Amino acid sequence: MSDEEYPIEGSVENKLAAVYTRIFVTLLACCIGWIVFWIGLNFDNLFNHNSSFPFVIVFSLLGMIIAPGPMILRMLNGGFSAAFKTQEYEVITTYADGRKESDGGAESAMTGLVLKFIALVIMIAIGSVFTLIYLLYLLIYYLILFVQVKPKPNFFASGFFLYIIGFLVLIMAPILAGGVHVEIDHAELNKFLAEKGLANVNWRLVLGLVLGIPILIGIVVKIIKGKKNKGTLKSVSQAAAQPATSTGKSKVKGDVFAQAQPTQPDSEENYYSAGDFIWARWSQDGNLYFAQIIGVSDSTVSVCYTDGTREDLSTDDIFYLPEALESGLTPFGDWNGGGYHYECVILEMNDTSVLVQYTEDGTQEEMPYKWLLFRNT
């Protein structure tokens, strides 16, 4: 991953998404490298393999390269690439009888190989230190952006969850690989395994797979999860002309926004009503966010946003669905409900959901209305 692929620029939300991606890639490389490194150090214990010195070297070195891999790539894309460019030369020996003999560039090749190895070792050492510093920088930067953004990404789609997973891998990898001694009654454990017909099973390896496979599945699903396109939908013009109606004004048990639908006002005389689901202009940034009216007075309307924030606004800052569509603001969709919003075009709508197409890559997603916000771009 290069910095150019995920530039930290634009709106606060775009910056947060870019920082999240960098955290994900950097931590993923660190976790994989750390696990491979400890597998190499304890190859004999894990696989009951004798004379495994070559495997120890290969796995340990591979882990040391993978962990700071993204940082090493950044260094190679920078000025450090010059360290791997060595000048080729040929040594020619002239004898007393006038004969000349060339080494065919053997000395040049050997010197270049040694210099490249030294450069690689230096890059691994520097890259490891810089990776730790970079992760600390990303954590602080993410925290600053997280405080500013609204609505907040949910915990499991946030960078904080990634750091927790990384911390668990940091602790568990050496334990499962046998590099850290854990007080276990091996006699009782072996007796239990023998009773279950699992006497020859490596418990450390099994436990590592049990803990690691769900994490890997989660990562793969997060990467390849596609967009859903289903349902009978009406056009945007039809939806604007006939807004979706809510299922009622009564209180909803549990999450009030779980099945929330945009509300059509009852009448011009009683336009704003407590319980209506609308879009409200948040005073901090001027964007329109999905919210519920919780109170109405002569001059203000009290709203509660999906994250629990409450605010008193004027009626000019309250938008029912047709008004939000005609506000001139750009719609942004919350991709997969992860809390990261991207610019989109509304294609179709029905009573419960909206179909959008993201302008960045053209992918489509059907989502609940509460995932839709309107921003001044």
What does this 3D model show about the protein?
Strands 3, 9, 10, 11, 12 and 13 form a 6-stranded antiparallel sheet that branches. A 5-stranded antiparallel sheet has the order 7-6-5-4-8. The chain folds into 2 domains: 12-182, no CATH class; 234-375, SH3 type barrels (Roll), CATH 2.30.30.140. The protein has 377 residues and is α+β, with helices and mostly antiparallel strands. Helix 1 (12-41) packs parallel to helix 6 and helix 6 packs antiparallel against helix 8 (203-224). Residues 181-185 and 225-254 have low confidence and may be disordered. 43% of the residues lie in helices and 16% in strands. The protein is built from 10 helices and 13 strands.
Short description:
The protein is α+β, with helices and mostly antiparallel strands and 377 residues long. It has helices spanning 12-41, 43-47, 53-66, 69-77, 106-148, 159-177, 186-195, 203-224, 236-241, 321-325; strands at residues 92-94, 100-102, 234-235, 277-281, 288-296, 301-305, 310-313, 318-319, 330-334, 341-349, 353-358, 364-368, 372-375.
